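User: Please fill in residues for this 311-position structure.
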C-alpha cells in the first residue's frame, strides 16, 4: 500500500530551510544597512577629502592629499587640530582611570548584601539615562563662576571663589566630574554582572585558608574580572576620545580653546568655516589614530590576561 504526499496548494514553490540562499536572505537587511550607512559614507568621505568639495558648486577640483598634508604643514589647521587632540587625550588620561577604578570600587561595595542595595544601585545608574545636554546644563550651573552651587559653598566656608568656567585648567573640573557622575553607572553595572558569575565556592575555599577581604579581592575578584576590565577600559577610552557634548554645553570649548575637543574643532571646521574637505581629512586622521591606539591597548591588555591565565 502506497501513500501519497499532499501537494502544495496552488502549486506554490518556496525556498526550503536547507536552501543555500536562505542564510543570505537573513543577512540581506543588515547588509543593506551596512552598505548604506557605513560603506557608502566612508567611500564618499574619501572622495570629499581628496577634492575641494563645495556642495553649492558644480565643479569639485581634485587636490589629492592636500588636506591631509595641511595637518603636518605650518597651517592653522595643523595648530588647532593637534592642540585639540592634546586636549582630548588629556581628558581621556584623567577620566578613564576614574571611570574604571571608581566603578569597580562601587561594584565591590554594592555587591555585598547591604541594606537598600538595589536603591543605591539605581541611584548610581540613573544619571546615565539623562541626555548630554541635561547633564551639561546641570554641571554648568553647579560650577558657575558667581552663582554656582560650588562657589556658594566655598563662600559660605569663607574660601575665595574659583572662576571654573573661564580659567584654564579649572575648566576641566566640571567636565571631568560631570562625565564621571554621568557614565559611571554603566561600568558599575558591567562589573556587578561579572561579579555575579564568580563561583561562591572560590571565596569559601579562600576563607577556609584564612584569606582576608583584601586578599580575596586581589587574588580572586580582580584577576577573574580582567576580561570585563578589558572591555570597560576599551569602551571607556573610545567614549572619552569622542568627547563633544560635555565641553560644548559646559564651557563651549573655552577658555581660549583650552577645553575644545578634536571633534568640536572638526565640527567647527566643517559647519562654521565651511571647509568640508579639510574636516573630512581630519576625521579620517583622527579615526585612524583612535583605531591604532585602541588596537595597541586591546593587544596589550589581552596579552596580560593570557599571561595571567597561564600563570
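Assistant: Residues filled in for all 311 positions:
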Amino acid at each position: 500500500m502506497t501513500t501519497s504526499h499532499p501537494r502544495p496548494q496552488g502549486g506554490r514553490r518556496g525556498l526550503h530551510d536547507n536552501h543555500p540562499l536562505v542564510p543570505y536572505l537573513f543577512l540581506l537587511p543588515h547588509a543593506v544597512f551596512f552598505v548604506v550607512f557605513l560603506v557608502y559614507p566612508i567611500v564618499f568621505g574619501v572622495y570629499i577629502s581628496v577634492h575641494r568639495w563645495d556642495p553649492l558648486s558644480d565643479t569639485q577640483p581634485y587636490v589629492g592629499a592636500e588636506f591631509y598634508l595641511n595637518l603636518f604643514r605650518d597651517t592653522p589647521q595643523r595648530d588647532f587640530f593637534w592642540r585639540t587632540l592634546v586636549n582630548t587625550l588629556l581628558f581621556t588620561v584623567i577620566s578613564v582611570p576614574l571611570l574604571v577604578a571608581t566603578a569597580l570600587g562601587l561594584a565591590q561595595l554594592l555587591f555585598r548584601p547591604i541594606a537598600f542595595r538595589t536603591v543605591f544601585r539605581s541611584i548610581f545608574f540613573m544619571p546615565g539615562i539623562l541626555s548630554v545636554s541635561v547633564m551639561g546644563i546641570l554641571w554648568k550651573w553647579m560650577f558657575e563662576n558667581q552663582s554656582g552651587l560650588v562657589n556658594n559653598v566655598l563662600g559660605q566656608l569663607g574660601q575665595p571663589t574659583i572662576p571654573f568656567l573661564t580659567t584654564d585648567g579649572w575648566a576641566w573640573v566640571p567636565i571631568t566630574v560631570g562625565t564621571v557622575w554621568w557614565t559611571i553607572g554603566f561600568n558599575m553595572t558591567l562589573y556587578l554582572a561579572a561579579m555575579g558569575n564568580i563561583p561562591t565556592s572560590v571565596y569559601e575555599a579562600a576563607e577556609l585558608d584564612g584569606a582576608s577581604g583584601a586578599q580575596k579581592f586581589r587574588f580572586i575578584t580582580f584577576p577573574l574580572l580582567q576580561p570585563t576590565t578589558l572591555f570597560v577600559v576599551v569602551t571607556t577610552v573610545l567614549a572619552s576620545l569622542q568627547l563633544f557634548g560635555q565641553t560644548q554645553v559646559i564651557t563651549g570649548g573655552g577658555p581660549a580653546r583650552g577645553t575644545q575637543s578634536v571633534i568640536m574643532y572638526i565640527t567647527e571646521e566643517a559647519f562654521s568655516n565651511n571647509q568640508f574637505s579639510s574636516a573630512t581629512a581630519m576625521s579620517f586622521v583622527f579615526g585612524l589614530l583612535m583605531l591604532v591606539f585602541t588596537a595597541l591597548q586591546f593587544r596589550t591588555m589581552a596579552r596580560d590576561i593570557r599571561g595571567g591565565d597561564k600563570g
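For context: The chain has a mean pLDDT of 90.
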